[in-house]
Task: structure prediction
Amino acid sequence: MYEVVEMRSVRFCVIGLGNIGRRLLELITQQQDLLGARYGLDFRLVGAADSGGAALDATGLDMTTIVGLKQAGQGIGSYPEKGQPGTSADRMLAQCEMDLLVEVSPTNLETGEPGLSCIRSSLQRGIPVVMANKGPLVLAYQELVALAKENRIRILFSGTVAGALPVVNIGTRDLNVCAVERVEGIFNSTTNYILCRMEDEGLSFREALAGAQEGGIAERDPTLDIDGWDAANKLVIVANSVLNRPTRLQDVDVTGIREISREDLLSARSEGRAIKLLATAVRNGDDYELVVRPTSLPLSHPLAGLRLWDMGVVYHTDTMGTLTAIIEEQGAMPTAAAVLRDMINAFC
Result:
């Protein structure tokens, strides 16, 4: 039983209606009673945008209708009566009276758009932002956090690193009275899936990658994953947020898994070790060395045993010991749940 709490209506806009955005709307719809009873929050969607258009309604868009449109292959611009085909995300936001922006559009590491401009303008308007899009943080973390601080609002992004695994929350909240000496993370599930299948099933790298693509785990262009850049992007976010180190992608030494063979994996196993694509930040004086590369770990290491769908992080600290967190997650729902977690935390 929950105590009776005063209800608060939160008007939000969402940019991006791909897998994460759709799952988020499904989750909010499913959990409306819990959100009200436990937190006193009623999330009301007043604006939504995808790559083809937008829809707005100050009284609230029906989230189930939007999910149905997307599942049928239609854009948000086809929303009955309220759809605006061709309207961009920034134009939609300019028309919207909202309390929160949720930015879950695809990651763009060249310009950060359309997310970066929309996040920047929302923060300047004094509107809190929740995001699962890594691009704007990788390109402009310091600027965006400074904007949020200047306007005394929150920018939350726990879903940008390893989905529902609270890597950022642990580092910024639970380890806030210690110094982090070393971070070790398996932040990219695609590469872990590929390496596990190569080792366990005797697949070549190409075969394992093809299987990941056929199963929808890897993109048609898997470069960001297999060349280590996705893990590096997440390490950049951890370095900025947890380690308080102003960091850009060029600060990370990156090597992917293209050259790893099954023979390499079996040789490591025969020596009681496992090869994983590891992201590390190691304190060196007043700075950290940031590296992403295939690493041979002893089987006693807490990340060595991570299987197909697992991700994990190990924090080594000066006063709070060593903390390990591991998650098994499949599909987009866990990341969507992390976004909802941040939406709640923005108001509680």
User: Anything to note?
Assistant: DSSP finds 13 helices and 13 strands in the chain. Residues 176-328 form a domain with the Dihydrodipicolinate Reductase; domain 2 fold (CATH 3.30.360.10). The CA atoms of residues 34 and 40 lie 9 Å apart. The radius of gyration is 21 Å.
